[in-house]
Design a protein that fits this description.
two-stranded antiparallel ribbon, about 30% strand, alpha/beta, 9-stranded mixed beta sheet, Rossmann fold, single chain
């Protein structure tokens, strides 16, 4: 079974994002970048499918392809996926930050060329927090989808996925090929070992451009302004529970 894992280069989750002075976007100059944490979980799960770990039969995944869309520096993100255990990578170079629909269209083109049995991806990227690409990709491909996966099993030609929903857990079965988006509690990604990092340097990364796929990626949205969230105001102290209840009852008192 071939597994395609999209991975995105984002600002490292430990870094506080800064807004540009002209409020046109987030300042990425001299900022540490890394793989989107949800995508890292997806890569780990795909590798476990190949290794026979995490409840998967050995050899469930026979090939793992990591694909990224972004600047040439996104090769580092793909190399990280290769060091974790992916077999090869594809980078679609784009110097502009594409909208979720454009990303889904490009991934659809990659899926049609690679013909994977499963697309395993993070539920969202921590930069835009859109949580949209997986669902859009499934719709464009007309494939079954399972989102917010906290457990994935492959059996009888189906992906049996336990989903985290507001009311608890929901288990569904999606006929392969399918799109599955993963949540935080699916697994804990491994640290890439030094030997695997060295091996990753020799693995193939196919370099593509957006123009190679003849896909309309024109933006549908216009960013008017990007601002930081307002700073929290200082709290107040109350003498006792009765005063707290009284202030909670008074709109705007706290």
């Amino acid at each position: 079974m071939k597994v395609l894992v999209p991975v995105k280069r984002v600002i490292d989750y430990n870094v506080k994002a800064r807004v540009k002075a002209d409020q046109t976007g987030v300042d990425l100059a001299n900022v540490k970048m890394s793989m989107n944490p949800f995508d890292e979980i997806a890569v780990e799960e795909a590798v476990r499918m190949a290794e026979g770990k995490g409840g998967h039969a050995a050899g469930t995944a026979t090939e793992i392809v990591a694909v990224s869309i972004g600047p040439v520096q996104a090769q580092e993100t793909i190399r990280n996926a290769l060091a974790i255990g992916a077999d090869r990578g594809i980078l679609i170079q784009s110097e502009t930050d594409l909208e979720p629909l454009a990303v889904a269209k490009l991934l659809k083109a990659v899926v049609e060329a690679e013909k994977p049995d499963l697309v395993l991806m993070g539920k969202q990227a921590i930069d835009g927090d859109n949580n949209a690409v997986g669902q859009m990709l499934a719709a464009l491909l007309d494939w079954p989808q399972a989102t917010f996966a906290s457990k994935v099993e492959i059996k009888d030609g189906k992906a049996v996925v336990t989903r985290e929903v507001d009311g608890g857990l929901q288990t569904i079965a999606a006929q392969l090929p399918a799109v599955v988006t993963v949540d935080l509690r699916l697994n804990t990604p491994r640290y890439a070992s030094l030997p695997n990092i060295m091996k990753a340097k020799k693995k193939e990364i196919a370099m593509k451009t957006v123009a190679d796929f003849n896909v309309d990626v024109a933006p549908r949205l216009t960013v008017v302004k990007v601002t930081e969230p307002p700073k929290r105001t200082a709290g107040i102290k109350v003498a006792d529970a009765a005063e707290l209840v009284a202030k909670l009852k008074t709109a705007g008192a706290l």
